[in-house]
Amino acid sequence: MTIAVSLLGCGTDPDVPPDNGGTTLPRAPQNVRATTGTGNQVWLDWSSVPGASGYRVYAGTSSGVGPGVTAPVEVPPPDPNFSPLFKHDCPAGTTCYYVVTAVNAAGEGQPSLEVAGRNGGINLSVQISFRGAPITSQLLFPGDTIGLTVGTVSAGQVVEVTASAAGRDYQLTGIPGSTGWSTSLLLEGVPHGPVVLTVTARDVADNISTQSTQYFLDRRPTLTVLEPLDYTVARPSVHVRLVCHDDGPSCAIRVDGLTSGSGEFTPGPEEPLDLVLTAQGGGIDTISIVARDSVGSIATAARIVPFESSQRLTEVAQAPGRILDASADRLLWADSAQIAIQDRASGAQTVIFALEGDTAERGFLTPSGGLFQLQPRPSSSTAALFDWRGTEAMSLGDIRPSTLNVSQPFAVWAVNTQVFRRDLTTGTTTAVANTTGELAVGPNGDVLYGSGAELWRVRNGSPSVLVSDGFAHQDPVTDGTHVVYDRLDLGPSNQHFTVLNDDASESVLAGPSTGAGTYAVTNGWIAYSKLTLNLEQVWVRPPGSGETQASFVGSSSPRIESLSSDGQVYFETFDRRFLAVPPYSPDAIDVSGTEGRGIFIGGQPFVVIGRSLFAAN
């Protein structure tokens, strides 16, 4: 037979690796495709081979063509900006078979897979897709169900279209109202490597056209991250251990996060990768993991990792997930799947809620179990609130997220404008007010809320106006006896004052200032920020009267975090957490970075970070 081959131009191949300079044999051409052309032509195209100085095309009318069997046609390489595209005169009604090799100064490389083409007067257009989206690359995945659609143009009616791939045969079904045909390709179990998809169409005159396309079958890599769990604290290092699973020879793994130890690694198949990442100071970061296999498929994973290098913290307990609250004997924690209570002595876990796609936002241990609030779902302005009391989680409604306030053993929140108070010991819930203002509750059950220029208090079920003086009253807190709030002068100055109300009288603790201060009140102790010699400092007022300066650092708007029943104060400034202890001299203790929160358990200072509870030394 006579073979006529001519060189045309096609688009560039974006996945060509660097030129090997002709020092080694070129690789076998990939993605070889035989496509029905016009007349008696069959068109061949494939991806450019790096370092190739030319190509050889082996063609014949029977299968088994290739080096040593069929005489080749020498073909020069195309312009480097284009991929090779060839046309071959295949006799009408005949199936032609093709193999392509690349050549360079070192010789001729390995042959491509054999593909077939046949022109019987039927023009075929083949399209594969995944979940309705066209697949434009030559890469297929064995776990996917691939849609195959074939368009046909023929002088006679096409009566049958079949396909074959990886030794599996498929009968296509005509698409009503069109000349197209379709089926699904099931590739599960087909091994990693090249595979040829051949489509054959037959019309009423028994004219037959065949078109072949080479693809590469690759199972997507998967990552198993063995360590760390989310919210494991780097002290200041964390051990990362993971395995990439793939059907190819290796995975290139890129690990980024923290400040040292990250990089790119290439472990062997199924070989665990172990490394240590480190960060100094205190904060939180995300370890990002990307695995890329030999054909470019990727898998990703991530871990949220707080880090803390302070020597003043000693870990005393650890939970499987992020700690929401801690007490002397229990931890309330959550991960992506559940909320649970851990017994600190035995380590026993009690799952109290299955999250099912939700995320725990806040949580509090109660005498009988745990109170917890979920994050608002997208497009929702409310958050679900639950109380678990030993047997099941009781829904307390969809609340305004910012209104939940807890002062053991009471909680207060709002559903729309309706305010509810719950006794966490008895499980009794009572509607106490209607307001859109901020809420607070005391350990004696007093409920505070602002309403316009008035500050209200509900005590023993009876509401009364606590303050009415023409100012705005914001962010109240109470220990059941003393009430501290931010008073905002709504005049031209818009000045803020921190005010103490103890029923008998009111006194200004701090101000005027251009912004609201921070404050806390516990068991008669009051901590608050106040401008002192042009610097914001923390001051403490003990039960009775008088005040003492508790911080002496060059503060930058200190935020009071928590206050113990004996006057110890956690506060944050300059991205550090400090602990001030009576008699507050000479300086507060630099405890840690500001990640997590400082709390007091039984009068002792602790810090909760991620899934760890630390004692502060």
Model description:
This protein is mainly beta and 617 residues long. It has 5 domains: 5-118, Sandwich (Immunoglobulin-like); 123-217, Macroglobulin (MG2) domain (Immunoglobulin-like); 222-308, Immunoglobulin-like (Sandwich), CATH 2.60.40.10; 320-399, Thrombin, subunit H; 402-616, 7 Propeller (Methylamine Dehydrogenase, Chain H). The protein has no helices and 58 strands. The strands form 12 sheets. Strands 1, 2, 3, 4, 5, 6, 7, 8, 9, 12, 14, 15, 18 and 19 form a 14-stranded mixed sheet that branches. Strand 16 (173-174) and strand 17 (180-186) form a beta hairpin. Residues 1-22 have low confidence and may be disordered.
Radius of gyration: 36 Å
The amount of beta strand, in percent, is over 45%
**What is the CATH homologous superfamily assignment of the largest domain?**
Prolyl oligopeptidase, N-terminal domain
Q: Mean pLDDT, rounded to whole units?
A: 90
Question: What's the CATH class label of the largest domain?
Answer: Mainly Beta
Largest β-sheet summary: 14 strands, mixed
**What's the CATH architecture name of the largest domain?**
7 Propeller
Q: What is the number of strand segments?
A: 58
Through-space gap between termini: 91 Å
